[in-house]
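Ticket #4471: structure output looks truncated?

Reporter: J.K.
Steps to reproduce: submitted the chain below (108 residues) through the standard prediction queue, then opened the result file.
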Amino acid sequence: MPSLPILFAFIGASLAMNLTPGLDTMFVLAQTSHGGARGGCRAVLGIATGSAFHTVLAAVGITALVATSPASLTALTYAGGAKGFATVVSRIAGVVLIALAVGVALSR
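Returned output as attached by the reporter:
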């Protein structure tokens, strides 16, 4: 079990990643606009179920990989860091593009 500060940092980072708008948010908004609250709830349930399923599969697979090859832990660590960096860059780029689009729309 990780220490409490690490656990709280993980929970905080997970919440921040999940609360920022992204493709899931756009999907839920589209489903809600087409199918009302029921359609939005179905979309949220599907996304949550899929995320939980993929998390379990990833945890089992990564545990098996790391147990058989300690060097894979290093590779996994670097891959995770690169993925996190790419996610941050793409989210910043998304915010900048939205700000530019709003600026263009307001200037007309």
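Triage note (M.O.): checked the attachment and the full token line is present. The chain has three helices and no strands.
Status: closed, working as intended.
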